[in-house]
Structure formats: structure tokens, C-alpha cells
Amino acid sequence: MRQKSHEMKAIETFWVLGHKVTNYETTGDYDFSVGETPAHTQGPPPHMHNKLSETFLITEGEMEFMLNGDVKIAKPGDLIDLPPKTVHTFSNKTDKTCKWVNIHSPKGFRGFFEFVGISVDKQNAQKDSVSESVIKTVIEKAADFDMYLKL
């Protein structure tokens, strides 16, 4: 018997460290998010995941990725596939917004976005998402979500 498919529904949108992230509910063992990185926005601190694999698909604009010390410019249609233990970060150094799809497997990293993210409904959410208190929370709690900072 074939399993019935379900439409993925957006749960909530957050500003996370200057990036707009919309999480979707999935039935599989992965987290699925769609993101937007405004022009001239720095990414998260360099980090790695011990158990999670992470994938980015760039759908619009450009993103600069640092992967184990090497720099790659990703453009629309480019897929960045990160196995566990890959030290990485990303930033948008262009004058245009970059849009992307992000998948973490196995499921669980979505909780990081929900924990440190600021709801888009709140005034000044983007600015607040890079506040000193949020950065402190990221430093203190990232490892709880299999995110190990390499500062």
C-alpha cells in the first residue's frame, strides 16, 4: 500500500542571526527550511555539526561559503552538500538578497532556529536577531543543537 503524501506547510518564519528563515513541517527524518539573506549580511560563526548533514540549494542571488577553510561562491542552482564535521559558514557579500533552501538530516536542527530566532511579526526582528544577547545565547546553547562553534 502506498503512503499518502502530505503538503508541506510553513510553521513559522524567524529572523535568525540576520537571515530570514521559514521552517516547514516534514514527515521524513529531515528539517526543511527556506531562507533569505539580505545584501551584505554576515553568516553564523564558523561551525560544524557532529551528526547532522546539511544541504543548501541557492535559488536566487549569490552566497559565499567557507567550507573547511576553502571559499566557494554559490549561484542559483548550486547545491552545497555538507557531511558531518564540515566546518562552514556563509555570507552574502553582494548588493542583492540571496534566497536558499536548507535541509538538515536527521531531523532536529529546526529547534535551533526556533530557539534563537526572532519572529518576523516582532518590530525590529532583523536587528534584534543579531543583538548581543542573541549572540551570547548562540554561543552558550549552539552545542545543544549539534552546532559546534569554531571561534
Automatic annotation (TrEMBL):
SUPFAM superfamilies: RmlC-like cupins (SSF51182)
Domain of life, per lineage: Bacteria
Domain Cupin type-2 stretches: 39-103
Gene3D superfamilies referenced in this protein's UniProt entry, alphabetically: Jelly Rolls (2.60.120.10)
Transmembrane spans: none
InterPro entries referenced in this protein's UniProt entry, alphabetically: Cupin_2 (IPR013096), QDO-like (IPR053146), RmlC-like_jellyroll (IPR014710), RmlC_Cupin_sf (IPR011051)
Annotated protein name in UniProt: Cupin type-2 domain-containing protein
Species, as recorded: Gaetbulibacter jejuensis
Taxonomic placement: Bacteria, Pseudomonadati, Bacteroidota, Flavobacteriia, Flavobacteriales
